[in-house]
Structures are given as structure tokens and as C-alpha cells.
Amino acid sequence: MLDLVSSQGITVEDRGPGDSPLAVRGLTVSYGQKPAVFSVDMTVQPGAMTAIIGPNGAGKSTLLKAALGIVKPLSGLVTVYGRPLEQQRTRIAYVPQRASVDWDFPTRVIDVVLMGLSRELGLLGRVRARHKAHAMDCLHRVGMRDFADRQIGQLSGGQQQRVFLARALAQEADLYLLDEPFAGVDATTEKAIIDVLKSLKSSGKTVVVVHHDLATVTEYFDHVFLINTRKVAEGPVAEAFTAETLQSTYGGRLATAQIDQISRVLG
Amino acid sequence: MLWDALALQLGYNATLVAIGSTLLGVAAGITGTFLFLRKRALVSDAVSHATLPGVCLAFLALVVLGGDGRNLIGLLAGSAVSAWLGLLCMNWLTHNTRLAEDAAIGAVLSVFFGFGIVLLTIIQSLGVGRQAGLEGFLLGTTAGMLRLDALIIAIGGAATLILVTIIRRPMMMVAFDPEYAAARGVAVNRTDLAMMGLVMAVTVIGLKIVGLILIVALLIIPPVTARFWSERSDLVVLLAGMAGGLAGYLGAAISASTPDLPTGPIIVLVSFGFFALSLLLAPARGVLAAVLRHVQFQRRIHIRQGLLALAQGQMIYEPLTLRLLHRAGLARADGVATDAGRARAAKALRDEKRWEIVRADLTHEATAALYDGLRDIETVLTKDQIEEIDLRIGGPHGIQP
Predict the structure, then answer these.
(1) What is the CATH number of the domain that holds A12?
(2) This model's pTM is above 0.90
């Protein structure tokens, strides 16, 4: 196995799939006859922040959903911390795309965050003061404490995204999977989210983000996973996020000017 | 008469019907809320229509076996079996074919109901048993309501409510965000089936009173009514139960107090009455409130535009603007500003300039997002900040709000 140097300059060993927070082997998912994800292997590095990158319709979200068992794959194995997904559900927190929800649903911000505690509450358990306090604490971490009693439809897009993140935080998981959390959010929200993700990483959690903004990859992430139906590249940003891998991920869809700009960012 | 009915003083049968209708209304309202929030309201229509062939087949089976064809428990068991079959058909069609859910609902509803009508016609032409009364399952009948019928509703309703209480959290999670629920390990399809099973139970126990055609109204109108009054799902559930129960009680009382008024349809009409009142009068989501908000907003816009025109010495052409300014004492009837109007106009113009600076300044980004052309700048910036902005604008200072 390779020895890699992480961004903090500490030498870490690139772990195999054995005890990886999320390992995917030979995963193929298809809606109808055209595979959205084809025979993909992915090994997420523990304690890292990984971006899943690729063009629209490249299977980024599908990969995440299949890894979570939300969509059923045609083939492939998913292990979470070396064990089958079903045994490890409590260790995963998922932040879905904002568009997946009806925001006119009659529910308040605090109720959404409390959904993160559904395991702890069980079927009949009462919501107690400590649950509320925990939920408020999570809202505080994303800067949404003052909005706890608002109906979710009254929030801006960015604020809704932060509420989703707070719900994931409430789970106190080890692995965080986020689907396009920065899509269409304001600058304040982007900063709030990235700060939370970085604090998760520094407390040893693993973060995987479906990401669309190539300009911020080097700034936010230490690992990348490039996908266009098939896996294109995987590894530390410095090695896997290059002009060549981007070219083969995006093909003709990425303008040369964009690649030049990114190459400049990469140095 | 009505008061006697409301006080349950109209005799044994009327009292049974009133109690049964109330319990049914509560159970249907609460169960229906989950269906409504899952956006599956029409499923209940297919489920209820799918009960008919079961009722008829159960009747035939009972007669063939030499029993009483009107044995309610037997008929309801038959209706439950065929409704469940209908549900499974719909579930299979939506998950395994390219049919959308509305098409699957239409297919199941019409096929099952058509088959049921065929069986009903056969039964009537056969003249077997004491078939009189089977049509009652279409629109409901309370004429011959027995203690057993009320007991079935009470026990069925209570069992339904207990089950709803147990699985309310997974049902609500699936209704709000099925993908997140799946990611948390909630079995989405099984939860949906359980929810529809509960709807089926309510339908079956409600067949006797409201009949299979109108039961959908008891399931759907109360949650829609409740939604007007609350932004919290748990409160919507409770309010829907109350609205449903009240409609059941009032409807039964009204129909008992007047001869020849059918119970089921009256309950539905009372329920609709609650809905209509809510639609009009609900404080935040009601139609009147929305109209009022719009009119107020329009007036504020007119006054603001009028003030800005006054400040810049422009003519005001719109009669509504003139009228509003005049009524507020800001302008004379001929459109010339009063002293108060001049002061307000100057303030409005200055605020526009202040906002212009705020919106051009990146450090005020969060504030700039609040700009709507109406908001007083004092409500979003501190005195110091405004003074700092005024320094940048220059010109006369100290214009007071």
C-alpha cells in the first residue's frame, strides 16, 4: 500500500477496503437499461474530506444513494467500517439534496433536527429536554439557533441546507455523506457549512461530499473521487485532481479556459 | 330536535350512530393525515372502491355455506381481503411497471369497482338470501345499525389509533423525506404499506356508516382542513382528528333530527363546511388573510412610490396613489404635498439613497438581502451604521424617521 502525505504533513497509510469508513466494490446501478454507475470501486479514507466530482448525470448522487442503500444496485458490495451497511447504519449521517423535500410540509426547524434523533427516541419515546437541548446545540453549530421555531418553508435555500446539516450532526455519526450541500446557497451558508465540516474532520470524523464547484476543491478537500459513470481517478487532491484527470472526467464538456484556470489554482 | 340529537336524546339507535360516527371521524381524520402528508390522498379512493367485490363474494360465500348473508363481520372481512388485494396491485404496478401512481390508482379503482358492481347485479338477480342492504355499502346506511356495528367501529377505531401512535414517527419521516428515511434504515415501502393498511382498516369499519364512495372524504377533508391552522405536523394530526370527530358527531345528529336525511353524505357536508370556513378564515393560510395581505402590500407600495415622486417634484398620475396620500394627510387632494408629506418624502428619498449604498457595499451583504423597497432602514441597521452611511452620502444630516 502507498504511503501518502496528508495536508497536515503527517504521514498516513492509505488503508485498503478492510476497515475503510466506506468501501464500494464493483458497484453498478441502472435506472432502466443505461447504467448510471458502472462497476465502480471506491475506498474512502478515514478522517479525510473527500469530494465526489463529475459532470451532470455522471452518477455522483447515485453512487452516494447506492452506498446508503436508498437505490438498489444491480451488483456490487458496500461495506461500512468493514461490515455490512445494515449493521452500521447508526454510524452514517446523510444530508440529501435540498430539492428532495417538500418545503411546505408542516414542520418546524427544531422538528427536522429532532428527526436526527429518531433512533434514540425509538417509536414511542418522548422528546425530552435533553433531546431538545442537543438539537438546539446542533442548530447553534450551523448558526441557525434563532430559527428553531420557524416553519421550514420560511427559510432561504441556504438556511434550509444548514438545517439539514444540523439534523445530520444530531445523529453524532462517524461518517457524513452530503449530496451537493453547496449548490445554490449563499456565501454565509457556504462558510458555515465548510466550517462545520472542517471541525468534524478535525475531530476525526470522515466526510464525503458530492461537489460541483471545481474552483473550491483544492481549498476544501484533501481527497477526490472523479467519476463519469465509471471511476476516473481517486486519491489525494494533489495526485488525483489534475488537468489530465479532469479532462478525462469531463471530456469535451469542460472548456479549455476552465481547465487552464484550475491548472493555475493547482499550481 | 337537533338539540335532542346533539345531547344524544333521540333514542338508542340514533345514539349508537352518533357515537359510531364520532369515533369513525376521529380515526379517519388522524389516519388520513399521514396519507395526505405523504401525498397519497387518492390511494384511499382506490382502496375503498376495491372493497366492493370482497363484500359481494363474502355475501355469496356466506349464503352458499348456509349462513346469514348479512353477517357484518363476514362481509367486512371479505371487504378487507379485496381491498388489500387492490392495494398490493397498486403497489406492484407503481414499483414494477412504468405506470405512474395516478394511472395505477385509476386502473385498480375502476377494475375492482366494476367487478363489484357486476357481482352486486348478479346477487340481486339471483334473489338469494336477504340481499337487501348490500347496496348500503355503496353510500352507507344507519337505519339498521346494531350494537355490534358500533362495537366494531369502536374496537377497530381504537386499534387503528393505537397502531398509528406506534408507527407515527417512521410514517412522518417517510412522508417528509423518503430518501433520508431510507438512509436511516426505515423500510420505506413497508411503512407505506402499513400506512395504507391502516387506511384500509378505517375504510372497512366505515363502510356501514358512510359507504365506500364517500369514505375518502372522511380521510382527506379533515387533514386538509387542519393544515390551514397549523404548521406543525403533530398538531395537524390532532386537529384533523378533532375536525373529523366533530363532523361525524354533528353530521349524525343532524341526520337523526330530520327524517330522510342520509347520515354519510351529511357528515361529509359538515366536514366540507369546516373546510370552507378554514379556507376562508384561517389566519396565515386562509384566502381572506392572503387577500388582506396583498391589499396592504399594494397600499404600502403606492404610498412609497407617491412619496418618492413628491420628493423629486414629479406629478402623481395614479388616482389610487393620490387618494392614499390624501387620506394619510401627506398630500392635498390636488396632489400638492403637505408639511408632513414633505418630511416623509424627504426621508423616503434619503432611505432610498441609504439602501443604494448598502446594496453596493459587500460588507452589508446580509442586510442588502432584506431590501424590498419598503423596509425602513432603521429596522435593519443601527444608528451608528446609518450615520456612517449618511456621511458617505453627504448633504443635509439629521433627517429624522
Answers:
(1) 3.40.50.300
(2) no
